[in-house]
Amino acid sequence: MGKDKLRKWAENKTFPHVFEPELMPIIRGEATFKKGEWHQSVFGNNNPLVLELGCGKGEYTVGLARRYPSKNFLGVDVKGHRFHKGAKESLAEGLNNVAFLRTRIEFIQAFFGPDEVDEIWLTFSDPQPQDKAGIRRLTSKFSALKYKSFLKPGGLIHIKHDNPGVYEMALEEFGNDERFSIEEHHPDIYNGYVDQLSEEWQYILNIRTYYEQMWLEEGRKTKYVRIRVH
Ligand SMILES: C[S@@+](CC[C@H](N)C(=O)[O-])C[C@H]1O[C@@H](n2cnc3c(N)ncnc32)[C@H](O)[C@@H]1O
Fold first, then answer.
1. Ligand 1 atom at shortest distance from the alpha carbon of 124
2. Tens digit of pLDDT for each residue in 82-103?
3. Residue 149 and residue 116: Cα distance in Å, rounded?
4. Does residue 210 have its Cβ closer than 6 Å to ligand 1?
5. Ligand 1 centroid to 144 CA: how many Å?
6. Residues linked to residue 183 through DSSP beta bridges, in sequence order
7. How far is the CA of 57 from the centre of ligand 1 (A)?
């Protein structure tokens, strides 16, 4: 085990805005965690709640929190040493609208109640090319139907990705189902698309994640899909 990982895990335990609930009771269906309680018990307000699922280092969680102090942001990832960066940065900056949750997203319904979440960002989620049914793919309709159980009606799912298959699958799966509608999509956002958006959307879409930066340096194109949930 790398010393750096151990140091980050230990430091995460000292952060007041990092939550690492025991997983086994949740997997067995014997427990939930803060379900229906995030607004009051964690953030202490009723502001909109935005999740970044598979947040890695948490660039969207922290980047959006800086811009929107009157929304709450929760980064979720199973790898605590990754979101340690976002957790440390947000604490140092005194952002009181940020938290991180270490868990497996397969069990996400144990964490949120009906209408508790306003928006979800899926940033460069593992593409899972073998998973045709979309059971493990965080960007699939199978997963989105789980998210729908706690998203407000009219809530949004944003997908930012480099993989053409993930992009095309999202257009196909969400474009042909009346429970969802695709509001916006582009296959290569930094090639003329972002520049013609409002200043607000330029800020939002110009946040670059760690994986995104790597893929851009390899010449891959960033794709974006915005889905409204009905
Ligand atoms: C390709 S990385 C992208 C990270 C970050 N969003 C970025 O763009 O740099 C995928 C992330 O999703 C997390 N992840 C994948 N499947 C997960 C699951 N089932 N539950 C929780 N986290 C998961 C991984 O730990 C990893 O940090």
1. 8
2. 999 999 999 999 999 999 999 9
3. 9
4. yes
5. 16
6. none
7. 9
Contact call for residues 120 and 203 (beta carbons, < 8 A): no
Structural domain for 26, as ranges:
3-229
Rounded to an integer, what distance in angstroms lies between the CA atom of residue 49 and that of residue 2? 34
Kindly state the helix (H) or strand (E) to which residue 63 belongs, with its residue range: helix 59-67
**Residue 64: what residue type?**
L
- Whether the pTM exceeds 0.90: the reply is yes
Ligand 1: nearest atom to the Cα of 55:
6
Which residues face 186 on adjacent strands? 224
The CATH number that applies at residue 172 is: 3.40.50.150
The ligand 1 atom at the shortest distance from the C-alpha of residue 83 is 27
For the chain, what is the domain count? Answer: 1
Q: CB-based burial of residue 71 (10 Å sphere; 0-12 exposed, 13-18 middle, 19+ buried)?
A: middle
Return the residue whose CA atom lies nearest to atom 14 of ligand 1. Answer: 54
